[in-house]
């Protein structure tokens, strides 16, 4: 009781949390899955609705909740690479892959999304990413339960909050096949900026999808010409 009164998130106390009707193991070293992020999963599933096989990259995977929710709702012929710079996140993703019996379809790898991608990972049909996107200066104003208990590594997106969108568009579009798609979760008010960043590096047919509260939450586009 007293831990809750001090503001500690319930998810940390019980060590797990539900997302997309699945239960995920958590530690304080990964972001607690948010309902907003279910919009990203819905969008990714829509892309695969007409495909029988393919490779997904969950970039900045944290607990692994996005990629695992996708795999759970897609055929066994579809696999996912889970990338994060945090060793703790990769360990949690691994636990969740075991928990959901997906170790044969999911591979956790250490990668920094801000740096160039490892060519050895191969090419993907779909990249999904919920990167850190809070402007550094706004961290102090977050709810105490977020600010004091959740990992700043998973929240801080640089001076304007857009560092990861720029870096991923620049450094990771080379990991997409021709016709491959990149789906981002974005923070409130960031959709237009992210759309422009994607367009500037060659993504086409860019669309914005609102979350259940009507807030523009997912921005996605197609890479028509492989690089
Ligand atoms: N949606 C989270 C929050 O508002 C931030 C998630 C993120 O930075 N990717 O706390």
How would you sum up this structure, described in words?
- It is built from eight helices and nine strands.
- With 227 residues, it is an alpha/beta fold.
- Helix 3 packs across helix 4 (65-72).
- Strand 3 (54-59), helix 4 and strand 4 (78-84) form a beta-alpha-beta unit.
- The model has no long low-confidence stretch (mean pLDDT 96).
- The chain has a seven-stranded mixed β-sheet, with helices on both faces.
- Bound molecules: glutamine (GLN).
- Residues 31, 34, 36, 130-134, 146, 155 line the site of glutamine.
- Glutamine binds at residues 31, 34, 36, 130-134, 146, 155.
Short recap of the structure:
By secondary structure, the protein is of the alpha/beta class.
Radius of gyration: 17 Å
Strand content: 25-35%
Largest sheet: 7 strands, mixed
Estimated structural class: alpha/beta
Oligomer: single chain
Unreliable runs, pLDDT <50, ≥5 residues? none
* End-to-end gap: 54 Å
Count of distinct strands: 9
Shape field: globular
Bound compounds, each kind once, are: glutamine
List keywords for this structure.
alpha/beta; 9 strands; 227 residues; 29% helix; single chain; binds glutamine
Could you outline the blueprint of secondary structure elements for this entry?
Blueprint: H1 2-5, H2 10-14, E1 16-19, E2 22-25, H3 38-48, E3 54-59, H4 65-72, E4 78-84, H5 87-99, E5 106-110, E6 124-129, H6 144-147, H7 163-172, E7 176-185, H8 191-200, E8 203-210, E9 216-223
Parallel strand pairs: 3-4, 3-6, 4-5, 6-7
Antiparallel strand pairs: 1-2, 7-9, 8-9
Helix pairs in contact: 3-4
Bound molecules: glutamine.
């Amino acid at each position: 009781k007293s831990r809750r009164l001090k503001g500690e998130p319930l998810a940390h106390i019980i060590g797990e949390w539900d997302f997309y009707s699945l239960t995920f193991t958590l530690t304080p070293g990964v972001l607690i899955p948010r309902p907003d992020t279910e919009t990203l999963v819905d969008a990714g599933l829509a892309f695969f609705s007409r495909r029988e096989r393919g490779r997904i990259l969950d970039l900045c995977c944290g607990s692994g909740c996005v990629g695992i929710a996708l795999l759970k709702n897609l055929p066994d012929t579809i696999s996912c690479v889970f990338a994060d710079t945090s060793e703790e996140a990769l360990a949690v993703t691994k636990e969740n892959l075991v928990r959901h019996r997906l170790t044969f379809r999911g591979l956790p790898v250490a990668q920094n999304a801000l740096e160039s991608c490892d060519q050895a990972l191969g090419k993907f049909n779909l990249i999904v990413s919920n990167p850190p996107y809070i402007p550094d200066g706004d961290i102090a104003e977050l709810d105490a339960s977020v600010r004091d208990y959740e990992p700043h590594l998973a929240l801080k997106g640089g001076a304007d909050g857009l560092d990861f969108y720029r870096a991923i568009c620049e450094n990771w579009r080379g990991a997409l096949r021709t016709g491959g798609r990149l789906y981002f979760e974005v923070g409130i008010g960031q959709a237009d900026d992210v759309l422009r960043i994607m367009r500037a590096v060659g993504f086409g047919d860019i669309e914005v999808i609102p979350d259940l509260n009507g807030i523009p939450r997912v921005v996605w586009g197609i890479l028509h010409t492989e690089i």
